[in-house]
Specification:
With about 250 residues, this protein is of the alpha+beta class. It is built from 6 helices and 15 strands. It has 3 domains: about 70 residues, Ribosomal Protein S8, Chain: A, domain 1, CATH 3.30.1370; about 70 residues, 2-Layer Sandwich (Alpha-Beta Plaits), CATH 3.30.70; about 90 residues, Structural Genomics Hypothetical 15.5 Kd Protein In mrcA-pckA Intergenic Region, Chain A (Roll), CATH 3.10.290. β14 and β15 form a beta hairpin. α1 packs across α2. The longest helix is centred in the N-terminal third of the chain and has 19 residues.
């Protein structure tokens, strides 16, 4: 897959961060990244034989995360990613959505890269933002749509659930990409091959047009129009010589 100009800029920035960490003992973090961008950062670190990096979204299993590059003297518990959670509460008789909150933040002039995950439930939302915009959000976010909200710094109470995982079970003739796509979509192998070749399938967040690419446990498959799945387990081989597979769909 050919990298875009933005991809190349991100990789170059990570390489600069690595040099700063190695030569000047400085730690640096990116803005919030989507999962594809995170994969690019990890690949760049590995190409440069650099291992002192990690990702954080402000809570376990976050989807949008910051990529941090740290010097050799910074311990894990000392790593500062510059992530600030903000809790919003509102009347629960009207349901507000992720889109409502994101649209309001954009209308305040906040760039998408400064906003991480937005977790929403009835009457409550927790927004993760970069430290650079925290004060602006706290001062300016008073309404979402025409709904008045109360806003507090930090995480208040329990976090709203980010997503649920729905198990999808089936069998495949081999652990090839086209076989898994066919199982997860219900399409024929021929049609699965077409959508793979059309660039509509992502393996571990990177576009993959190789129908015979190997898929393993814990790999993530994203299929446009069908959703995102993680290969939870390969449960052995059936009497007919097919692999029994359990995947989880993100919903």
């Amino acid at each position: 897959m050919e990298l875009t100009a933005q991809d190349k800029l991100l990789c170059s920035r990570v390489e600069d961060f690595i040099k700063l960490a190695q030569e000047r003992y400085q730690s640096k973090c990116t803005f919030f990244l989507d999962e594809r961008q995170q994969a690019l950062c990890i690949k760049t670190a590995k190409v440069n034989h650099f291992n002192n990096y990690s990702l954080s979204g402000g809570y376990p299993n976050a989807q949008r995360r910051v990529f941090g590059v740290f010097d050799e003297f910074t311990c894990d518990d000392e790593r500062d990613y510059g992530i600030c959670p903000i809790t919003c509460t509102f009347a629960d008789f009207r349901k507000l959505t992720h889109r409502d909150f994101l649209g309001t933040l954009m209308s305040l002039g906040i760039k998408r890269e400064c906003v991480g995950d937005i977790l929403v439930e009835e009457g409550k939302a927790v927004i993760f933002v970069t430290a650079s915009v925290e004060a602006h959000v706290l001062a300016s976010l008073t309404k979402v749509g025409n709904m008045g909200i109360k806003i507090q710094r930090g995480i208040v109470g329990e976090l709203p659930q980010a997503y649920t995982l729905v198990p999808v079970k089936g069998t495949v003739s081999s652990m090839r990409l086209d076989c898994l796509v066919a199982m997860l979509t219900g399409l024929s192998r021929e049609k699965s091959t077409r959508i793979i070749e059309a660039g509509q399938v992502f393996l571990n967040y990177m576009e993959n047009d190789n129908q015979s690419a190997a898929v393993a446990e814990k790999d993530v498959l994203t299929i446009r129009g069908y959703g995102k799945f993680i290969v939870e387990s390969v449960n052995g081989v059936t009497k007919k010589g097919r692999y029994s597979v359990t995947c989880n769909k993100f919903v």
